[in-house]
Automatic annotation (TrEMBL):
One of its GO terms (biological process) is DNA repair. It is found in: Cytoplasm. This is Endonuclease V. The gene is nfi. The record marks Y82 as: Interaction with target DNA. InterPro entries: Endonuclease-V. It comes from Nitrospina gracilis (strain 3/211).
DNA sequence: GCGACAG
DNA sequence: ATCTTGTCGC
């Protein structure tokens, strides 16, 4: 799919923060932004503790059957450090190279991280939504900012994630009974209600939604295979 | 200054 | 996130 180049990626953390503030103004998650995706993609990255290449992967699913339609992977180096709030500057460059190969483009993308539930309103999902000009949703396994009450015990129960001024940033969603909730927030071109609806719809069995869960499995599998090959060739 | 802190 | 074995609970 087509990648928009809105800025360079080799920036300092200070420049990154400035870029986020600027880009956040272009995010659209207005109530009423509903979608009916036919293809839903999930993406993730896998890195090894020791130094070595990173692996990005995207899995495209049929929105109705949840069958895997396509898989894409991309190997590359990551230099930007992990800094809470600046995750996209670490993961987005490689993820975008993987998305570049995708054809046809998906109608919705789910990411492992936050959407607008971010200090400057531009988490990984929102940032990628702008570069890909595609609806995105953030499905984080833990909270970055905001407060929330414990959602109900039943699958599908959710509690609003609220910011300092009382704004609703996202939701803590119970995708499976007996498990901790995940944090869903709109990324771009979709509203929170619709984001919640689709995340729940692609989470038939596990805590992690199928798109990102399968993408996670894919990149870990590919990393181990590639590391094995590289080890035997040396 | 202190605590919090996606992956 | 990654590493890593067994173990506790629904």
């Amino acid at each position: 799919m087509k990648i928009h180049s809105l800025h360079r990626w080799d920036v300092t953390p200070k420049e990154a923060i400035s870029i986020q503030k600027d880009l956040a103004r272009h995010i659209n998650t207005s109530v009423g932004l509903k979608i009916s995706p036919k293809l839903i993609a999930g993406a993730d990255i896998s890195l090894s503790q020791s130094r070595g290449p990173a692996y990005a992967g995207v899995v495209v699913l049929d929105a109705n059957t949840l069958e895997v339609v396509a898989e894409y992977t991309q190997r590359g180096e990551i230099d930007f450090p992990y800094v809470p709030g600046l995750l996209s500057f670490r993961e987005a460059p490689l993820l975008l190279k993987a998305f570049e190969q995708i054809d046809p483009p998906p109608d919705l993308i789910m990411l492992d991280g936050q959407g607008i539930a971010h200090p400057r309103g531009l988490g990984l999902a929102s940032h990628l939504g702008l570069f890909l000009d595609c609806p995105t949703v953030g499905c984080a396994k833990s909270r970055l900012i905001g407060d929330h009450r414990e959602p109900g015990t039943k699958k599908g129960s959710h509690a609003p994630l609220k910011g300092k001024n009382g704004e609703t940033l996202g939701s803590a969603l119970r995708t499976r009974e007996g498990c901790k909730p995940i944090f869903v927030s709109a990324g771009h071109k979709i509203d929170l209600a619709s984001a919640l609806e689709w995340v729940l719809r692609v989470s038939p069995r596990y805590r992690i939604p199928e798109p990102t869960r399968l993408a996670h499995n894919l990149v870990n599998r590919v990393r181990k295979e590639d590391q094995g090959l590289r080890a035997t060739s040396r």
